[in-house]
Amino acid sequence: MHNWLKNLAMTLMAGIALQGCSLFNSEEDVVKMAPVPQVESRFDPEVLWSKSVGSGVGKFYSQLSPVVADDQVFAAARDGDVMAFDKQSGDRKWTIDLSDQPENAEKRSARLSGGLTAFYGKLFLGSENGYVYAIDQTDGSLLWSKQVPGEVLAAPVADAGRIVVVTSSGKLVALDAEKGDILWSTGDDQPKLTLRGQSTPVLAAGGVVYGRADGRIGVVLLDSGMLANVSRVASPRGATELDRMVDVDAQPVIIGDELYAVAYNGQLMARKLISGEELWKRKYSSYQNMGVGPMELVLTDAKSHVYAVDRSNGSEKWANTQLSYRNLTAPVTFGDYVVVGDGEGYLYWLDDASGRIVAMQELDSDGLYVAPVADGDILYVQTRSGDLVALKRP
Predict the structure, then answer these.
(1) Is 61 exposed, middle or buried (0-12, 13-18, 19+ CB in 10 A)?
(2) Which of 76, 81, 199, 371 is deepest in the core (most CB within 10 A)?
(3) Where are the domains of the chain?
(4) Which residues in 171-180 are b (16+ Cβ under 10 Å) and which e?
(5) DSSP SS3 for 292
(6) Confidence of residue 195 (pLDDT cuts 50, 70, 90)
(7) HSE of 126 in the Cβ direction (CA atoms, 13 Å)?
(8) Which CATH architecture does the domain made up of 33-56+296-308+316-394 adopt?
(9) Which residues contact 129 (CB under 8 A, 6 or more apart)?
(10) Residue 173 backbone dihedrals phi, psi, to 5 degrees
(11) Do the first three CATH levels of 33-56+296-308+316-394 and 64-199 match, i.e. the same topology?
C-alpha cells in the first residue's frame, strides 16, 4: 500500500505540475497551464557560453543543480556524468562517469539526483541507487562512495568534517568527509503518502536542521545525531491522504537567529532558532526552496504563483499569478530581479520591487527544473536536456 500511495503522489504531482493535464481522462482538465505570457522584454540577457552536460535529467524528478566553487562550476547528469567547467570561459576541465562504478552495473545508470555540494576541495552528491559520492574538485577522481539506507534525492551538506544526507526512507545520515564512513544515522516515521522529494538540511550552531514529511522541522546534534528539538510547521488536515500531505521539502532558511520554513498544504512560518518562539505565520503551500532577498523571502507555491514576503512580519510585498501551473522552478534573487524557469524552458526575470515580468527568454524546449544559480554577476542555468548556460546580469 505504501508504494502504491507514493506512486499515486508522484503521478499526481507530475500530472498537475508538469503538464497541467487531466488526471482522470475526463473531457475537461482539472487544472489549466497558463499560456506563455506576452512580454516586451526590457533587455536580452547575454549568453556568455553554453555547454552540454551529458544527457541531463530527462523527464525524471531531480534536484541536481550546478554549484560554483573558486573558479569552476560543476554540474552532473542523471546517468552519471559529472563535469567541471571554467566559470568564465566554459572550458571543460574534467569529466567522470559514475555509471562505470560496480554498484551501478545492473541499473546501467548512476541515477544521480541529490547534489551537487562543494566543500573541503571535494564535490559531494547522492543517487537514487542509495549511494553518496565524494569527488576531487581538482581532477575529478573518485575519492570514495558509500551506500546509505535509501535514495538520496536532496543535496548533501557539509561542515566540521562531516557530510549529512537525508534519504527517502526518512533517515538522516552523517558520514566522515575524508573516508565516507557512516558516523551516525537517525530516522523519522514516514507518513503513508509523501511527495517525491526531500529537504536539504541546514547546519547551524552545531546542529542539523531539516524538514520532515510529517510537517515538522527537526534539529539533531551534528556530533552525535541526538534529537535536540522538533517544531511543527503544518498540521495534517482533510478527509483524504492527499489533503493531509504536509511535507517540508523546501530547505529551511536560517538568517541570524531566525528560522524560516514552509510546508506543502501548510504555511510559511518564522521562529527564533534557539528558543522556538513563533514570530509569525502565513498561509502558503510550497515544496520548493525559497529565494532570499535583502529583506524578503521569495517563494514559488504549489500553483506556480510567485510571492515576495517581508521577513520581519510576514506581510506580502507582491504576488505574480501569471504563470499558473507552468511548473516553475524555485526562485533565485539576482540583483534587482527574481528569476524563475518553467517546464517549457522559459526563463523569467521579475522586477524584485513589483513582481512584474520585465524580460523572458527561451533556453530549452525540454524545460527547466531547478533554480538558477547566482554567482556574482553571472547566472548559471541547467536544463533538462543537459545544457549548462551562463548568463550575464543586465
Answers:
(1) middle
(2) 76
(3) 1-29, 33-56+296-308+316-394, 64-199, 208-288
(4) bbbbbebeeb
(5) strand
(6) low
(7) 28
(8) Beta Barrel (2.40)
(9) 103, 104, 107, 110, 111, 151
(10) -125, 130
(11) yes
Cα–Cα distance, 284 to 265 (Å, whole number): 7
The number of C-alpha atoms within 13 Å of 321 and in the hemisphere containing its C-beta is 3
- What's at 282, amino acid-wise? R
Window from 16-30, 62-76, 78-92, 293-307 with minimum mean pLDDT: 16-30
Pull the grid cell for residue 185: 544515522
Q: Measuring CA to CA, which residue among 51, 49, 43 is closest to residue 360?
A: 43
Q: What's 5's DSSP letter?
A: H
Q: What are phi and psi of 99, to 5 degrees?
A: -70, -15
pLDDT tens for each residue of 125-154: 999 999 999 999 999 999 999 999 999 999
Its sign, for the CA torsion 37, 40, 43, 48, is positive
CATH of the domain spanning 208-288: 2.40.10.480
Q: According to the CATH classification, is domain 64-199 in 2.40.128.630?
A: yes
